Amino acid sequence: MVFGQIVIGPAGSGKTTYCNGMAQFLHLIGRKTAVINLDPANDNLPYECAVNIEDLVKLEDVMSQYDLGPNGGLVFCMDYLEKNLDWLQEKLRPLIKDHYLIFDFPGQVELFTLHSNAKNVILEMANKWDYRLTAVHLVDAHLCSDPGKYVSALLVSLSTMLHLELPHINVLSKIDLIESYGKLAFNLDFYTDVQDLSYLQGYLDSDPRSAKYRKLTKELCEVVEDYGLVSFTTLNIQDKESVMDLLRIIDKSNGYVFRGIEGNINEFNKLAAAPTKWDYDRTMAIQEMYMRDDDDVNDSDTPR
Ligand SMILES: Nc1nc2c(ncn2[C@@H]2O[C@H](COP(=O)(O)OP(=O)(O)O)[C@@H](O)[C@H]2O)c(=O)[nH]1
Ligand SMILES: [Mg+2]
């Protein structure tokens, strides 16, 4: 079974840095990983990519040939990828045997809230090719420093979740820099848990510019709260603990954590109901045990 991550989020939110950091971390813990660059606007990739969309279509060529700007060019490139999915499938074929896949996607928000091309690429992988994928949606933690920007981050996160229909983790990236934007109006938990947005209202009212949009903001916050879907986890890509904590959540959401125990419904139920942190190391131990058993069986050629 193929497992992986779809890395998305606005331009500059840290996607490429994340793909590099996460791939290095996975390499350190012994998980064979391939990073696939599907963002034609990425240059100077910090990671060694196993597949690069540049080999299929180049943003510069598209922009000059069709007289498009960078945004239009990217939409074209995603359309082109959607029409050439067999190219992607062929490139991934040698990897899917034993690699965990990380996809670095473009940062144009409209690709994940509005257009269907990137979504169709992702759904083809998830539904037709049966890859188990989690969307890792990065949002720059800097947006917490301004209540208006925070509301926009909530809306983008919610729209992306509803649009993609995948297991989805929202991440406040670059959390190491959060202090550098001044003191936050609320504790960090307030921003990550998204529990009672009415407190934001009072804060927004104190700024005459945002007071003008009081009613609109209130309604938008109510939409986010009524769905009850958006919450965030935090990430400092330089910090191994932080990357590990995020990986635990991702592994549970796309089912990687249940790998190897499909046949054991009791074990499956226990793991599904347990808190993420607690069960992780135990799960890994169980998986290793099952895999060792499998190896023993295979080695001795005993019929199962
Ligand atoms: N301090 C800090 N900087 C980061 C982090 N992640 C990314 N960056 C920086 O943010 C900038 C944009 O990152 P990039 O990965 O290119 O974003 P992308 O456009 O979403 O792919 C780069 O200068 C990175 O070095 C982080 O966790 N902490
Ligand atoms: Mg990038």
TrEMBL record:
Family matches, as SUPFAM superfamilies: P-loop containing nucleoside triphosphate hydrolases (SSF52540)
Gene3D superfamilies, A to Z: P-loop containing nucleotide triphosphate hydrolases
Pfam families membership: ATP_bind_1 (PF03029)
CDD domains in the record: GPN2 (cd17871)
Source organism superkingdom: Eukaryota
Keywords tagged on the record: GTP-binding, Hydrolase, Nucleotide-binding
GO MF annotations, alphabetized: GTP binding; GTPase activity
UniProt cross-references to PANTHER family, sorted A to Z: GPN-LOOP GTPASE 2, XPA-BINDING PROTEIN 1-RELATED
Assembly and binders: Binds to RNA polymerase II (RNAPII).
Protein's job: Small GTPase required for proper localization of RNA polymerase II and III (RNAPII and RNAPIII). May act at an RNAP assembly step prior to nuclear import.
Protein family (similarity comment): Belongs to the GPN-loop GTPase family.
Protein name: GPN-loop GTPase 2
Organism in which the protein naturally occurs: Physcomitrium patens
Encoding gene per record: LOC112273702
